[in-house]
Amino acid sequence: MSGLTLFVCLFLPAVQICGTSEMPLDRPGSIPPYIYGAAFVVCAMLGPARWAVRLAVALLWLVTCAYALFAMSMIAAIEPLGVVELLAALGVMVTLGGAARESRLALVPVVVGVGSAVWFSILLATGEARYGAWLSFASAFGVAIAGLLWRYDITAEDPSPPLPRATARER
Fold first, then answer.
1. Quick one: DSSP state of residue 26?
2. What pLDDT sits at residue 90?
3. What are the φ/ψ torsions at residue 16 (nearest 5 degrees)?
4. Residues 88-134: tens digit of each pLDDT
5. H/E/C letters for each residue in 45-62?
6. Are 139 and 9 in contact (CB under 8 A)?
């Protein structure tokens, strides 16, 4: 639910600039957290089957690679925000890793949610924040909490039986 709310915030006024309310859609550099929100909604709808986890990992890799290319184009346009965005995309790539494992997949919403919450807190600190920025901030925390709960659920339901403790014998 928080991913969907985050995506919807893309179309809500986030900041007031020169007396005019601006939506994130008006500023391409601020779009990635909202796209991740939509991707998390799709991943949640896929379910926990092995093929679904692989499809979700592929989707997040696609979104992250597009994000990295976008950040590189921002750097080429000599925008310093592009460097920060590229580092964020690389952080998501490292978190996601190369294996299609649900445990790695569950960490991505935590990383994206916390990073997005930091980004939105900067917007809120300007004093020009509109209700879209406040709702985005809350939704980003919701995404991070959902990722933590997902990660906990995966580790709590570990289907492998525990190995017996090894003992040394003398001969």
1. G
2. 80
3. -110, 120
4. 888 878 877 766 577 777 888 888 888 888 888 888 888 887 888 88
5. HHCCCHHHHHHHHHHHHH
6. yes
H-only helix segments in 77-101:
81-96
Closest to 89 in 3D by CA, of 35, 41, 53, 143: 35
Retrieve residue 171's tokens: 């001969």
Whether the Cβ atoms of residue 58 and residue 31 lie closer than 8 Å to each other: no
Tell me the DSSP string of 126-153.
Answer: TS-B-HHHHHHHHHHHHHHHHHHHHHHH
Please state, in angstroms and rounded to a whole number, the distance separating the CA atoms of residues 57 and 46.
Answer: 11
Q: Is the pLDDT of residue 74 over 80?
A: no
Distance CA 54, CA 3 (A): 20
Q: Which residue has the tokens 């992250």?
A: 64
Give the 3-state secondary structure of residue 14. coil
Residue 136 structure tokens: 């985005």
| Residues comprising the chain, all counted | 171
pTM of the model: 0.74
| Phi, psi (deg, nearest 5) at residue 84 | -65, -45
Q: How far is CA 171 from the centre of its chain?
A: 56
- For 31-61, how does the pLDDT look when each residue is reduced to its tens digit (9 = 90+)? 788 888 888 888 888 877 778 878 888 888 7
